[in-house]
Amino acid sequence: MGSEFLAYLRLGVAHIADLAGYDHILFVAALTGGYTLGAWRRLLVLVTAFTVGHSVTLALATLRLVTVDAPLIEVLIPATILVTSLASIVLARRPDESRPWRRSGWRGADGGPRGGPLLYLLALGFGLIHGLGFSTYLRALLGAESSIAMPLLAFNLGLEAGQLLIVAVTLMIGAAASRLLGARRDWVLLLAGITGGLATLLLIQRVAALNG
């Protein structure tokens, strides 16, 4: 039992952190790239919102309580990355004078980006879509398993471990890049541009495959 639990735990980590299927990595990076360790409370809320979203649909789809249209989900996932990247660009480029009562401009006092409620809603809603994507992979792994409760739990915990790893790496790269570029805003715009561009390519490829 213990070895099986660890096996599904590792599969969860490997799936979300897989460089070959980097769409989930792009989403987590786009979602959290504007934050610093000083904004850890709001970052925790953000990550929790995404976790709640994908945990719900991962469970429902794996238990076959909802039907998954796998090709459509594969198209929707890069769309979530693109929208998240565009939201980051809008928040980062918002001029300070548009809200003169907020002297700190586009960032909060803790170093995190403003627009928290919008990002929380994006994380929760888009988490539902990513959970359906995770379920397609997990159901293929489960095959004819008679009991799926333990594999589902282990796999979900693995996803969370991998997700936290991606967040940690994103924060470290962001801190280094901000110093190199001289401004945190420049890093956020650069990251959003990269994730948005890659998401656009993925979206085009998957729409073509869906229609082909």
TrEMBL record:
Keywords tagged on the record: Membrane, Transmembrane, Transmembrane helix
InterPro entries: Put_HupE_UreJ
Transmembrane parts of this sequence: 12-31, 43-66, 72-92, 118-140, 152-175, 187-208
Superkingdom of origin organism: Bacteria
Protein name from the UniProt record: HupE / UreJ protein
